[in-house]
Sequence to fold (701 residues):
Amino acid sequence: MQSRWLQEEADQFLSEYGTEWGEDLALRTYSARLLGADSNLVLHGGGNTSVKTLHTNLLGELIPAIFVKGSGHDLATIEPSGHAGLELDHLLRLRKLRELNDDAMVKEIRSRLLDYRSPNPSIETLVHAFLPAKFIDHTHADAILGLTNQVEGRELVKAAFGDEVVIIDYVKPGFDLARATVEAAEALPEAKAAVWMLHGLVTWGETAGEAYETTIRLVTRAEEFLAQRQDSPLQIAVSTEIDKAKARWNDVAPTLRGLLAESSGNLDRPYLPLILKPLFSRPALDFVDSDTGRELALTPPLTSDHLIRTKPYPLWIDTPEWGDLSRLETQLRESVATYRTDYEAYVMRNSESGESGLKVFDSAPRVVMMPGLGVICSGKDIHEARICVDVTAHTLDMKAQIGGGGAYRGMLEGELFSMEYRGLQHAKLRQDEPPLRRQVAIVTGAAGAIGAGICRGLLEQGCHVAVTDLPGPRLDSLVEQLGEQFGPRVISVAIDVTDRESVSEGFNSVVSEWGGVDLVIVNAGIALVSSLEEMELEVFRRLERVNIEGTLLMLAEAGRRFRRQGIGGDIVLLSTKNVFAPGARFGAYSATKAGAHQLARIASLELAEIGVRVNMVAPDAVFGESDRKSGLWAEVGPDRMKARGLDEKSLQEYYQTRNLLKSKVTAEHVSNAVLFFATRQTPTSGATIPVDGGLPDATPR
Fold:
């Protein structure tokens, strides 16, 4: 492991933060980020850091203070404000107590915040307070856990570090661990660090650089020690190719995602799906294909910090029936059901030691391992799923190393349960959940004004959105724009809705990325201005292929996917006011959109039995904004302007003044109508929402 400390960078942090926050906190921020930048030390909000310093209070008095990382903050990106300031003297007096439960501990800690707006300090705040050193770093370094998580772990740690570290057998994080650590450190004053068995490493120093360099030095020594003891790699009978694993994933994903969804108790949205993210790396495939993969996988996690991401154990599916999809689906169903039963039994066995009043979590696995496929991780959104992937990848790597030279040992079941159901652990994950956070949507024709508006509206409600259209600059620019704001919840998928294979492959791409589909917005469509007398049949057929056949292909593919997933779904067709009030010289568009509208109504009848709702939105005259014009109006506008002797601005005003409300209809308005159906505000299917400002001739309303 290499030190990342550069004095020039440290000086930059002093220059940027020193004046406002003080030199101590500026350097604390720098070294904390160095720790967070290395995934072999901490992962996604793991670990914690602190610094003791002086604080000037409102009376101008200098008082001893400690700044501790706020719970849930990520060391890799932490700002000075991410460390909560506390009155140190009061925290030190808590050491006199014989015991202190979580509720009382949190109350005491929060009562001593220097700023009430600060985040909740780390669960290990009292460790940082009780240890006398100025700078303290706590990490869950892989190599340290590689030593501690073995049957002879204590002996290995002693052999690797001698008296340079104190060794603490597993103690539940909090007050008891803080007392045990400081007492052990006082008994061994030459120690520079503490190793917490089955948990991690704590280092200290009088400078930020000293504490950080001690971490790097000790972790490096642990890496070297582990390497010397690894006798042999995992034995692999048959090595699965990554391409084969990816192909199998598309077969497995819909069924598995449906099985992992939790019942919500809400009749309007009866299931709570998860976002699935596969891990197809060579190490992961070799692990699940190895002779000891199952034995190692079904052991506790490396550290309790990972519990909130992965649950105590994964689901392992023995000898998947890859040659028979029907039998494989039965195998998946039975395996998930068994896991749920076993998990509920685990909760019942340990519930007496759990926190009173704490709601039982869902019983589905967070990690599924399948020989011949790899590892599937899950979360409430892609962010959580990716964290689960990262944690699992590191876990498999360390378990494989241990399995090559030792015997793995993790936390006991009671200890696992106590930490899994500990409110302090989950407090850092609590957040308001947007209504579509767990949902995956496909939007066709997304590169136009209406499609782009719908994509943005869905994303703002937490949805994962596959932005689809014909390939080209309009699609690319939209995805780039949305990606800057919404990150990995946006992907680009090129789909030609008139091509059955393209539609199927488009769905496959979305399933590969997020595990399934919940919402399909059928928006792709084209227009034509022509009288019936002048209309060329081939041109009419072009509209028919896009507007009718494209709708049919999307409805059919969505229905097949929803049926396999088994947890319902939503389809929203972008219809038009022309279905109810067709326009002269607009016969091809009006007729083909009416055909699409009728197909959607039929779909509402056929798919209701599997919990799928199909509805329509019928807008009028959406011109788009300056940065993204409507493709339909680019086609229709010139003819309409010529017929009425108007320019573009006047044409928009004409359509605005003809509706009852004199409203300009925007893509955002259309998006809001789509969201009404997507969020299931009412038990409705087969209905149409007009978005036209009120057009009496476009009835029925």
Observations:
- The two ends are 68 Å apart (CA to CA).
- Residues 242-427 form a domain with the L-fuculose-1-phosphate Aldolase fold (CATH 3.40.225).
- Residues 537-565 form the longest helix (29 residues).
- The chain has three domains: 7-229, 242-427, 440-690.
